From TrEMBL:
Belongs to the class-I aminoacyl-tRNA synthetase family. A motif ('HIGH' region) lies at residues 34-44. The gene is cysS. Monomer. The lineage of its organism: Bacteria, Pseudomonadati, Myxococcota, Myxococcia, Myxococcales. A motif ('KMSKS' region) lies at residues 269-273. This is Cysteine--tRNA ligase. Coiled coil: none annotated. Transmembrane segments: none annotated. GO terms for molecular function: ATP binding; cysteine-tRNA ligase activity; zinc ion binding. Its EC number is 6.1.1.16. It is an enzyme of class 6 (ligase). It comes from the Bacteria. It holds the Pfam family tRNA-synt_1e. Its cofactor is Zn(2+).
Amino acid sequence: MAAASIRLFNTMTMQKETLVPEVPGKVGVYVCGPTVYSYVHIGNARTFTSFDVVVRYLRYRGFEVRYVRNYTDVDDKIIKAARETGEQPVALAARFVEAFREDARALHLLEPDVSPKVSDHLPEILRIIGTLVDKGVAYESQGDVYFSVRAYPDYAKLSKRNLEELCMGERVQPGEQKREPADFALWKAAKPGEPSWDSPWGKGRPGWHIECSAMSARYLGETFDIHGGGLDLIFPHHENELAQSEAASGKTFARYWMHCGFLDLEGAKMSKSLGNVVSLREALGRVDPEALRFFFLSTHYRHPLAFSDKGLADAELRMEYFYETLRKVDERVGGKEFAPGPLHGEPARFLREFESLMDDDFNSAGALGALSGLFGAMNELTDKPPVKDKALVGRTLQALREDVRKVSGVLGLFEDEPSHWLLRRRDRAVKERGLDVARVEGLMAARVEARKVKDFAEADRLRGELKALGVEIMDTAGGTVWKVA
Ligand SMILES: [Zn+2]
């Protein structure tokens, strides 16, 4: 299948451009991964979810994607955190890599094709620093090695900053012997008690930025297609990666730069029940993972997103509506065969609209709107079908259900069995409300008995009693079910 035409906003040119991969049909994607000194922050989780959907959609559109997301497991923050816990930095980093993997799985993030760690790539890092020193764009100073921003004329072309202002604004840290305040460390001389490796400049460890230059080149080549990360990484991290890589290779580094907007925690800070929830792990303890994905994807990836209790609760309600619709549709037409024939209306239009919105810079917010139309059509066909022909309605519902499966793989939503998802949501609501499940089920059983003996007055009274408890009951094709209203 020929790959589709996708437009994306390139931070380098500040314009939407058509994605033309260097090798037709193949796309290399590098996303800066977590620094593993703690549980991943909810803002980072948004960034990783955005790129998860970018990768899924590129694949859906027929591109062969190689997705690389690193772990920064050598870093000042890790050393500091390890000092506080009394662990070895390596052990602390390994523990949080594992925690990240668990959280990422819970959030339905695809495992990247390669998840390299800094500590496994010292030879590659030393090689690129050596090249930069040989070329005269980096210099050694008392066991540190710095990149010389003045030796690379294109410095700051991604962030569009002014080099003179940068040089004036930067302060030299005590102990640093840099030629220019804006020069940055490629290699840091070992300090007592810190992890270190041998190098031509003595024992030390890599600076932060060089790892991504080394690991992207190793797994995607010196030139690759899409480099992604959070907006906060443009400067200095991505600027520095770019300078090192292009100065070393003499080639274009990333051909497209994509940046995900900030997650604004103000709303959450003011919220009592969320308190100061900032880690993905804590958020997943309170909200359904697909609801959290839905919440992230409801805003365009480049726009700021305000994190709030209400936003999460609304997202979960919306997911409940979607899953209730799917349960109903599955009960009606799941596994059934209908005589072949035409479909009612034009059900394929929702998927086409979804695709055209996603083709336009991965507009997931718009695409979810198209999905609302699709679910609306499914509800209409199940609740009040506009035509009497049952086979026509059945075929159309099955076609729509199939399209939900297709978008499910792109968004990482609706991946669960509807009744399982709804039960989990109910269990969570039961816990939050402190409901007595035995009592609810006793009342439910009594209502079934009352209906059996056609005592409808008693059945209605029991329904009212359940309602007073905050329980809503629904008689479905598969029997009576209840949910927390
Ligand atoms: Zn990076």
